[in-house]
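Limitations

Structures in this collection are predictions, not experimental determinations, and the ligand pose is part of the prediction. Treat each record accordingly. The example that follows, with uridine-5'-diphosphate-glucuronic acid as the small molecule, is included so readers can see exactly what is and is not provided: the inputs are given verbatim, and the output is the predicted complex.
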Amino acid sequence: MRIVMIGSGYVGLVSGACLADFGHHVTCVDKSEAKIDALERGEVPIFEPGLDTIISQNRNAGRLDFSKDLAAPVASADVVFIAVGTPSRRGDGHADLTYVYAAAREIAAAVEGFTVIVTKSTVPVGTGDEIERIFREEFPGKDIAVVSNPEFLREGAAITDFKRPDRIVLGTEEPRAIEVMREVYRPLYLNEAPLYFCERRTSELIKYAANAFLAMKITFINEIADLCEQIGADVQKVAKGIGMDKRIGDKFLHAGPGYGGSCFPKDTLALVKTAQDYDSPMRLIETTVAINDNRKRAMGRKVVAACDGNVRGKKIAILGLTFKPNTDDMRDAPSITIVQALLDGGADVHVYDPEGMEAAKEMLGPVVYGKDAYEIAEGADAVVLVTEWDEFRALDFKRLKALVNKPVLVDLRNIYPIAEVVRHGFSYFAVGKKSGS
Ligand code: UGA
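Predicted complex:
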Protein backbone atom coordinates (compact mmCIF):
# COMPACT_ATOMS: atom_id res chain seq x y z
CA MET A 1 0.00 0.00 0.00
CA ARG A 2 1.38 3.45 -0.92
CA ILE A 3 0.81 6.17 1.61
CA VAL A 4 1.63 9.87 1.47
CA MET A 5 1.79 11.96 4.64
CA ILE A 6 1.34 15.68 4.01
CA GLY A 7 3.08 17.58 6.80
CA SER A 8 6.21 16.24 8.46
CA GLY A 9 5.70 17.84 11.84
CA TYR A 10 5.19 15.92 15.01
CA VAL A 11 2.05 13.97 14.05
CA GLY A 12 3.05 13.44 10.43
CA LEU A 13 6.52 12.15 11.19
CA VAL A 14 5.48 9.78 13.97
CA SER A 15 2.50 8.44 12.00
CA GLY A 16 4.47 8.18 8.75
CA ALA A 17 7.37 6.34 10.37
CA CYS A 18 5.08 3.94 12.23
CA LEU A 19 2.99 3.20 9.12
CA ALA A 20 6.23 2.42 7.24
CA ASP A 21 7.14 0.14 10.13
CA PHE A 22 3.86 -1.73 9.49
CA GLY A 23 5.22 -2.54 6.02
CA HIS A 24 3.57 0.19 3.93
CA HIS A 25 5.51 2.44 1.59
CA VAL A 26 5.32 5.97 3.01
CA THR A 27 6.43 9.31 1.61
CA CYS A 28 6.47 12.18 4.11
CA VAL A 29 6.03 15.53 2.39
CA ASP A 30 6.72 18.98 3.76
CA LYS A 31 6.94 22.43 2.24
CA SER A 32 9.89 23.32 4.45
CA GLU A 33 13.01 22.62 2.41
CA ALA A 34 15.16 22.85 5.54
CA LYS A 35 13.07 20.16 7.25
CA ILE A 36 13.14 17.74 4.32
CA ASP A 37 16.87 18.33 3.75
CA ALA A 38 17.53 17.59 7.42
CA LEU A 39 15.43 14.41 7.31
CA GLU A 40 17.26 13.29 4.19
CA ARG A 41 20.57 13.84 5.99
CA GLY A 42 19.24 11.50 8.70
CA GLU A 43 18.48 14.24 11.24
CA VAL A 44 15.21 14.11 13.18
CA PRO A 45 13.91 17.63 13.82
CA ILE A 46 11.90 16.75 16.95
CA PHE A 47 12.73 14.93 20.15
CA GLU A 48 10.58 11.82 20.52
CA PRO A 49 12.02 8.69 22.15
CA GLY A 50 12.54 5.88 19.60
CA LEU A 51 11.56 7.91 16.54
CA ASP A 52 15.07 8.25 15.11
CA THR A 53 15.56 4.46 15.14
CA ILE A 54 12.24 3.76 13.39
CA ILE A 55 12.96 6.41 10.78
CA SER A 56 16.44 5.12 9.98
CA GLN A 57 15.40 1.45 9.93
CA ASN A 58 12.53 2.09 7.53
CA ARG A 59 14.58 4.39 5.30
CA ASN A 60 17.22 1.67 5.05
CA ALA A 61 14.51 -0.86 4.20
CA GLY A 62 13.29 1.42 1.39
CA ARG A 63 9.85 1.90 2.90
CA LEU A 64 10.17 5.53 4.00
CA ASP A 65 11.24 8.55 2.02
CA PHE A 66 10.84 12.32 2.09
CA SER A 67 9.82 14.84 -0.52
CA LYS A 68 9.27 18.57 -0.95
CA ASP A 69 7.04 17.86 -3.90
CA LEU A 70 3.54 16.59 -3.34
CA ALA A 71 2.31 15.88 -6.86
CA ALA A 72 4.39 12.85 -7.86
CA PRO A 73 3.90 10.74 -4.70
CA VAL A 74 0.20 11.68 -4.45
CA ALA A 75 -0.45 10.56 -8.04
CA SER A 76 0.55 6.99 -7.18
CA ALA A 77 -0.85 6.91 -3.61
CA ASP A 78 -3.67 4.74 -2.28
CA VAL A 79 -4.03 6.90 0.82
CA VAL A 80 -3.07 10.52 1.48
CA PHE A 81 -3.00 11.68 5.09
CA ILE A 82 -3.28 15.39 5.86
CA ALA A 83 -1.20 16.04 8.97
CA VAL A 84 -0.49 19.77 8.67
CA GLY A 85 -0.76 22.18 11.59
CA THR A 86 -4.05 23.65 12.78
CA PRO A 87 -2.90 26.44 15.10
CA SER A 88 -5.29 28.68 17.02
CA ARG A 89 -6.44 31.44 14.68
CA ARG A 90 -5.11 34.73 15.92
CA GLY A 91 -7.72 36.73 17.76
CA ASP A 92 -10.57 34.26 18.13
CA GLY A 93 -9.24 30.83 19.18
CA HIS A 94 -10.86 28.97 16.26
CA ALA A 95 -8.68 26.35 14.60
CA ASP A 96 -6.92 27.90 11.60
CA LEU A 97 -7.62 25.62 8.62
CA THR A 98 -5.64 27.55 6.02
CA TYR A 99 -2.98 24.83 5.73
CA VAL A 100 -5.51 22.00 5.66
CA TYR A 101 -7.50 23.49 2.78
CA ALA A 102 -4.37 24.49 0.87
CA ALA A 103 -3.13 20.90 1.17
CA ALA A 104 -6.52 19.56 0.07
CA ARG A 105 -6.45 21.70 -3.11
CA GLU A 106 -2.92 20.58 -3.99
CA ILE A 107 -3.82 16.96 -3.38
CA ALA A 108 -6.98 17.31 -5.45
CA ALA A 109 -4.99 18.57 -8.42
CA ALA A 110 -2.58 15.62 -8.20
CA VAL A 111 -4.64 12.50 -7.34
CA GLU A 112 -5.15 9.80 -9.95
CA GLY A 113 -7.48 6.82 -9.54
CA PHE A 114 -9.44 6.05 -6.39
CA THR A 115 -7.64 7.66 -3.43
CA VAL A 116 -8.60 7.93 0.21
CA ILE A 117 -7.91 11.35 1.74
CA VAL A 118 -7.54 11.14 5.52
CA THR A 119 -7.54 14.07 7.93
CA LYS A 120 -5.14 13.31 10.78
CA SER A 121 -4.75 16.95 11.79
CA THR A 122 -7.12 17.95 14.57
CA VAL A 123 -9.91 19.63 12.63
CA PRO A 124 -13.27 21.03 13.68
CA VAL A 125 -16.49 19.26 12.82
CA GLY A 126 -17.41 19.82 9.19
CA THR A 127 -13.84 20.07 7.85
CA GLY A 128 -14.17 16.72 6.07
CA ASP A 129 -17.36 17.99 4.41
CA GLU A 130 -15.55 21.11 3.24
CA ILE A 131 -12.66 19.08 1.79
CA GLU A 132 -15.17 16.92 -0.03
CA ARG A 133 -16.85 20.06 -1.38
CA ILE A 134 -13.51 21.37 -2.66
CA PHE A 135 -12.98 18.14 -4.57
CA ARG A 136 -16.54 17.96 -5.88
CA GLU A 137 -16.80 21.57 -7.03
CA GLU A 138 -13.26 22.43 -8.03
CA PHE A 139 -12.03 19.04 -9.27
CA PRO A 140 -15.11 17.14 -10.44
CA GLY A 141 -14.45 13.65 -11.72
CA LYS A 142 -11.72 12.82 -9.19
CA ASP A 143 -12.54 9.55 -7.44
CA ILE A 144 -11.88 10.10 -3.75
CA ALA A 145 -13.29 9.45 -0.30
CA VAL A 146 -12.59 11.73 2.67
CA VAL A 147 -12.06 10.00 6.03
CA SER A 148 -11.50 11.46 9.50
CA ASN A 149 -8.86 9.59 11.54
CA PRO A 150 -7.93 11.64 14.61
CA GLU A 151 -4.68 10.91 16.42
CA PHE A 152 -4.41 10.23 20.13
CA LEU A 153 -0.64 10.32 20.48
CA ARG A 154 0.94 11.69 23.62
CA GLU A 155 4.23 13.46 23.10
CA GLY A 156 7.02 11.44 24.69
CA ALA A 157 5.03 8.20 24.33
CA ALA A 158 3.90 8.62 20.74
CA ILE A 159 5.45 5.46 19.27
CA THR A 160 3.84 3.24 21.91
CA ASP A 161 0.54 5.08 21.55
CA PHE A 162 0.62 4.57 17.78
CA LYS A 163 1.49 0.90 17.98
CA ARG A 164 -0.63 0.00 20.98
CA PRO A 165 -3.64 2.30 20.78
CA ASP A 166 -6.76 1.95 22.91
CA ARG A 167 -8.74 2.44 19.71
CA ILE A 168 -8.46 3.76 16.17
CA VAL A 169 -11.32 6.07 15.30
CA LEU A 170 -12.27 6.17 11.63
CA GLY A 171 -14.97 8.50 10.37
CA THR A 172 -16.37 7.25 7.09
CA GLU A 173 -19.38 5.38 5.79
CA GLU A 174 -17.94 4.79 2.31
CA PRO A 175 -17.51 1.02 1.83
CA ARG A 176 -14.38 1.28 -0.35
CA ALA A 177 -12.75 3.67 2.14
CA ILE A 178 -13.59 1.30 5.01
CA GLU A 179 -11.77 -1.50 3.18
CA VAL A 180 -8.72 0.66 2.50
CA MET A 181 -8.51 1.89 6.11
CA ARG A 182 -8.81 -1.67 7.40
CA GLU A 183 -5.80 -2.52 5.25
CA VAL A 184 -3.81 0.50 6.51
CA TYR A 185 -4.29 -0.56 10.12
CA ARG A 186 -4.32 -4.33 9.57
CA PRO A 187 -1.17 -4.94 11.66
CA LEU A 188 -2.86 -3.30 14.64
CA TYR A 189 -6.09 -5.11 14.06
CA LEU A 190 -4.14 -8.37 14.43
CA ASN A 191 -3.06 -7.01 17.85
CA GLU A 192 -6.76 -6.62 18.57
CA ALA A 193 -6.73 -2.84 18.72
CA PRO A 194 -10.33 -1.97 17.97
CA LEU A 195 -11.05 -0.09 14.75
CA TYR A 196 -14.03 2.09 15.55
CA PHE A 197 -15.92 3.21 12.45
CA CYS A 198 -18.47 6.01 12.73
CA GLU A 199 -19.77 8.96 10.70
CA ARG A 200 -17.15 11.53 9.76
CA ARG A 201 -18.60 14.39 11.83
CA THR A 202 -18.83 12.15 14.88
CA SER A 203 -15.20 11.15 14.46
CA GLU A 204 -14.13 14.79 14.20
CA LEU A 205 -15.93 15.58 17.44
CA ILE A 206 -14.52 12.51 19.25
CA LYS A 207 -11.04 14.03 19.04
CA TYR A 208 -12.09 17.32 20.65
CA ALA A 209 -14.34 15.63 23.18
CA ALA A 210 -11.51 13.30 24.26
CA ASN A 211 -9.00 16.10 24.77
CA ALA A 212 -11.55 18.36 26.46
CA PHE A 213 -12.57 15.58 28.82
CA LEU A 214 -8.96 14.85 29.78
CA ALA A 215 -8.24 18.57 30.27
CA MET A 216 -11.35 18.77 32.47
CA LYS A 217 -10.25 15.73 34.47
CA ILE A 218 -6.85 17.31 35.19
CA THR A 219 -8.52 20.60 36.10
CA PHE A 220 -10.90 18.81 38.43
CA ILE A 221 -8.08 17.18 40.37
CA ASN A 222 -6.19 20.48 40.44
CA GLU A 223 -9.16 22.14 42.14
CA ILE A 224 -9.42 19.22 44.54
CA ALA A 225 -5.71 19.80 45.26
CA ASP A 226 -6.42 23.42 46.21
CA LEU A 227 -9.16 22.25 48.54
CA CYS A 228 -6.87 19.61 50.03
CA GLU A 229 -4.39 22.33 50.96
CA GLN A 230 -7.11 24.24 52.78
CA ILE A 231 -8.58 21.31 54.68
CA GLY A 232 -5.45 19.24 55.29
CA ALA A 233 -6.19 16.31 52.94
CA ASP A 234 -3.82 14.63 50.49
CA VAL A 235 -4.69 14.95 46.79
CA GLN A 236 -2.65 11.92 45.73
CA LYS A 237 -4.63 9.74 48.09
CA VAL A 238 -7.90 11.29 46.95
CA ALA A 239 -6.89 10.58 43.33
CA LYS A 240 -6.07 6.99 44.20
CA GLY A 241 -9.27 6.59 46.16
CA ILE A 242 -11.50 7.83 43.36
CA GLY A 243 -9.37 6.30 40.60
CA MET A 244 -9.99 2.79 41.90
CA ASP A 245 -13.59 3.27 40.82
CA LYS A 246 -13.46 1.93 37.25
CA ARG A 247 -16.13 4.41 36.20
CA ILE A 248 -13.66 7.20 37.01
CA GLY A 249 -10.33 5.52 36.20
CA ASP A 250 -6.93 6.34 37.67
CA LYS A 251 -5.34 8.13 34.68
CA PHE A 252 -5.00 11.89 34.28
CA LEU A 253 -5.56 12.53 37.96
CA HIS A 254 -2.11 13.92 38.76
CA ALA A 255 -2.43 17.36 40.27
CA GLY A 256 0.15 19.83 39.04
CA PRO A 257 0.81 23.31 37.68
CA GLY A 258 -1.93 23.07 35.02
CA TYR A 259 -1.98 21.41 31.64
CA GLY A 260 0.03 22.80 28.72
CA GLY A 261 1.31 21.62 25.38
CA SER A 262 0.29 21.89 21.78
CA CYS A 263 -3.05 20.12 22.15
CA PHE A 264 -5.16 20.65 25.27
CA PRO A 265 -4.96 24.47 25.37
CA LYS A 266 -5.64 24.81 21.63
CA ASP A 267 -8.29 22.10 21.36
CA THR A 268 -10.30 23.14 24.42
CA LEU A 269 -10.41 26.69 23.09
CA ALA A 270 -11.45 25.54 19.61
CA LEU A 271 -14.23 23.36 21.06
CA VAL A 272 -15.51 26.28 23.11
CA LYS A 273 -15.62 28.44 19.97
CA THR A 274 -17.36 25.78 17.87
CA ALA A 275 -19.94 25.22 20.60
CA GLN A 276 -20.62 28.96 20.83
CA ASP A 277 -21.00 29.17 17.04
CA TYR A 278 -23.63 26.46 17.13
CA ASP A 279 -25.36 28.16 20.07
CA SER A 280 -24.67 25.15 22.23
CA PRO A 281 -22.17 26.53 24.74
CA MET A 282 -19.93 24.14 26.67
CA ARG A 283 -19.71 25.85 30.02
CA LEU A 284 -17.71 23.08 31.65
CA ILE A 285 -14.96 23.50 29.08
CA GLU A 286 -15.13 27.30 29.16
CA THR A 287 -14.57 27.11 32.90
CA THR A 288 -11.82 24.52 32.51
CA VAL A 289 -9.92 26.87 30.18
CA ALA A 290 -10.29 29.80 32.59
CA ILE A 291 -9.27 27.79 35.67
CA ASN A 292 -6.22 26.37 33.93
CA ASP A 293 -5.07 29.81 32.76
CA ASN A 294 -5.37 31.21 36.28
CA ARG A 295 -3.62 28.22 37.76
CA LYS A 296 -0.34 28.82 35.96
CA ARG A 297 -0.06 32.31 37.45
CA ALA A 298 -1.17 30.96 40.84
CA MET A 299 1.79 28.57 40.75
CA GLY A 300 4.09 31.60 40.46
CA ARG A 301 2.41 33.02 43.57
CA LYS A 302 2.89 29.70 45.32
CA VAL A 303 6.65 29.95 44.79
CA VAL A 304 6.63 33.53 46.06
CA ALA A 305 4.73 32.39 49.17
CA ALA A 306 7.30 29.64 49.75
CA CYS A 307 9.94 32.40 49.74
CA ASP A 308 8.24 34.21 52.62
CA GLY A 309 6.13 36.30 50.27
CA ASN A 310 8.95 38.07 48.45
CA VAL A 311 11.34 36.97 45.70
CA ARG A 312 12.95 40.34 44.94
CA GLY A 313 16.68 39.81 44.54
CA LYS A 314 16.38 36.12 45.42
CA LYS A 315 17.77 33.36 43.24
CA ILE A 316 15.19 30.81 42.14
CA ALA A 317 16.25 27.56 40.42
CA ILE A 318 13.68 26.10 38.02
CA LEU A 319 14.01 22.38 37.25
CA GLY A 320 12.19 21.49 34.03
CA LEU A 321 10.66 23.83 31.44
CA THR A 322 8.87 21.70 28.85
CA PHE A 323 5.13 21.15 29.28
CA LYS A 324 5.86 17.55 30.26
CA PRO A 325 8.90 15.24 30.28
CA ASN A 326 10.41 13.44 27.27
CA THR A 327 9.73 16.22 24.82
CA ASP A 328 11.44 19.43 23.76
CA ASP A 329 8.06 21.10 23.32
CA MET A 330 7.58 24.37 25.17
CA ARG A 331 4.21 25.34 23.73
CA ASP A 332 1.90 26.69 26.45
CA ALA A 333 4.17 25.19 29.11
CA PRO A 334 3.22 26.29 32.64
CA SER A 335 6.91 27.17 33.17
CA ILE A 336 6.53 30.19 30.87
CA THR A 337 3.92 31.83 33.13
CA ILE A 338 5.64 30.75 36.35
CA VAL A 339 9.00 32.17 35.24
CA GLN A 340 7.33 35.41 34.13
CA ALA A 341 5.58 35.77 37.50
CA LEU A 342 8.93 35.33 39.26
CA LEU A 343 10.69 37.81 36.97
CA ASP A 344 7.84 40.28 37.60
CA GLY A 345 8.48 39.81 41.31
CA GLY A 346 12.13 40.77 40.84
CA ALA A 347 13.65 37.28 41.15
CA ASP A 348 16.94 36.18 39.62
CA VAL A 349 15.72 33.10 37.75
CA HIS A 350 18.04 30.25 36.75
CA VAL A 351 16.61 27.40 34.70
CA TYR A 352 17.56 23.97 33.44
CA ASP A 353 15.74 21.47 31.22
CA PRO A 354 17.24 18.33 29.61
CA GLU A 355 15.72 18.98 26.15
CA GLY A 356 13.70 22.18 26.12
CA MET A 357 16.26 24.96 26.55
CA GLU A 358 16.68 25.84 22.88
CA ALA A 359 12.94 26.30 22.44
CA ALA A 360 12.72 28.06 25.82
CA LYS A 361 15.17 30.76 24.74
CA GLU A 362 12.53 32.17 22.38
CA MET A 363 9.83 32.21 25.04
CA LEU A 364 11.34 33.15 28.37
CA GLY A 365 12.45 36.57 29.54
CA PRO A 366 15.89 37.32 30.99
CA VAL A 367 16.82 34.09 32.79
CA VAL A 368 20.10 32.23 33.17
CA TYR A 369 20.37 28.80 31.55
CA GLY A 370 22.34 26.19 33.49
CA LYS A 371 23.79 22.81 32.61
CA ASP A 372 22.15 20.70 35.31
CA ALA A 373 20.03 20.82 38.45
CA TYR A 374 23.01 21.22 40.77
CA GLU A 375 24.62 24.05 38.87
CA ILE A 376 21.50 26.20 38.98
CA ALA A 377 20.81 25.28 42.62
CA GLU A 378 24.08 26.87 43.75
CA GLY A 379 23.20 29.79 46.01
CA ALA A 380 19.46 29.40 45.33
CA ASP A 381 16.81 30.62 47.75
CA ALA A 382 14.34 28.08 46.39
CA VAL A 383 14.45 25.09 44.05
CA VAL A 384 11.24 24.67 42.04
CA LEU A 385 10.47 21.41 40.28
CA VAL A 386 8.17 22.25 37.36
CA THR A 387 8.52 19.28 34.97
CA GLU A 388 8.94 15.72 36.24
CA TRP A 389 11.90 14.58 34.12
CA ASP A 390 13.35 11.28 35.33
CA GLU A 391 16.65 12.93 36.22
CA PHE A 392 14.83 15.05 38.83
CA ARG A 393 13.23 12.03 40.48
CA ALA A 394 16.25 11.03 42.50
CA LEU A 395 17.93 14.29 43.42
CA ASP A 396 20.90 14.01 45.76
CA PHE A 397 19.48 16.12 48.60
CA LYS A 398 22.67 16.01 50.60
CA ARG A 399 24.57 17.55 47.71
CA LEU A 400 21.76 20.00 47.03
CA LYS A 401 21.63 21.13 50.66
CA ALA A 402 25.32 21.97 50.57
CA LEU A 403 24.83 24.07 47.43
CA VAL A 404 21.70 26.13 48.12
CA ASN A 405 21.46 29.36 50.04
CA LYS A 406 18.11 28.37 51.57
CA PRO A 407 16.86 24.78 51.59
CA VAL A 408 13.38 25.26 50.06
CA LEU A 409 11.88 22.80 47.56
CA VAL A 410 8.66 23.61 45.73
CA ASP A 411 7.56 20.37 44.09
CA LEU A 412 4.81 21.25 41.59
CA ARG A 413 4.55 17.62 40.41
CA ASN A 414 4.36 15.93 43.81
CA ILE A 415 7.15 13.50 43.07
CA TYR A 416 8.75 13.49 46.52
CA PRO A 417 7.42 12.22 49.83
CA ILE A 418 7.57 15.07 52.34
CA ALA A 419 9.43 12.93 54.91
CA GLU A 420 12.37 12.33 52.58
CA VAL A 421 12.78 16.03 51.76
CA VAL A 422 12.35 17.26 55.31
CA ARG A 423 14.81 14.65 56.60
CA HIS A 424 17.48 16.41 54.56
CA GLY A 425 16.66 19.73 56.16
CA PHE A 426 14.54 21.22 53.38
CA SER A 427 11.24 23.04 53.67
CA TYR A 428 8.86 21.27 51.33
CA PHE A 429 5.91 22.74 49.39
CA ALA A 430 3.82 20.43 47.24
CA VAL A 431 0.49 20.62 45.39
CA GLY A 432 -2.54 19.51 47.37
CA LYS A 433 -0.44 17.78 50.03
CA LYS A 434 0.99 18.64 53.39
CA SER A 435 3.86 21.10 53.29
CA GLY A 436 6.36 21.40 56.10
CA SER A 437 9.91 21.62 57.29
C1 UGA B 1 -2.63 14.93 24.52
C2 UGA B 1 -3.51 13.67 24.68
O1 UGA B 1 -3.15 12.98 25.88
C3 UGA B 1 -3.32 12.75 23.48
O2 UGA B 1 -4.21 11.64 23.57
C4 UGA B 1 -3.64 13.55 22.19
O3 UGA B 1 -3.46 12.79 21.05
C5 UGA B 1 -2.73 14.74 22.13
O4 UGA B 1 -2.94 15.57 23.29
C6 UGA B 1 -3.09 15.51 20.87
O5 UGA B 1 -4.22 16.02 20.77
O6 UGA B 1 -2.31 15.49 19.91
P1 UGA B 1 -0.05 15.52 24.99
O7 UGA B 1 -0.48 16.95 24.83
O8 UGA B 1 1.14 15.05 24.26
O9 UGA B 1 -1.27 14.54 24.57
O10 UGA B 1 0.28 15.29 26.51
P2 UGA B 1 -0.48 14.71 27.80
O11 UGA B 1 0.29 13.57 28.33
O12 UGA B 1 -1.90 14.49 27.54
O13 UGA B 1 -0.29 15.93 28.82
C7 UGA B 1 -0.89 17.21 28.57
C8 UGA B 1 -0.68 18.11 29.75
O14 UGA B 1 -1.45 17.69 30.87
C9 UGA B 1 0.77 18.19 30.25
O15 UGA B 1 1.07 19.54 30.57
C10 UGA B 1 0.77 17.31 31.49
O16 UGA B 1 1.75 17.66 32.42
C11 UGA B 1 -0.63 17.58 32.02
N1 UGA B 1 -1.14 16.49 32.88
C12 UGA B 1 -1.41 15.27 32.35
C13 UGA B 1 -1.37 16.74 34.23
O17 UGA B 1 -1.14 17.86 34.74
N2 UGA B 1 -1.88 15.73 34.99
C14 UGA B 1 -2.16 14.50 34.49
O18 UGA B 1 -2.63 13.63 35.27
C15 UGA B 1 -1.91 14.26 33.14
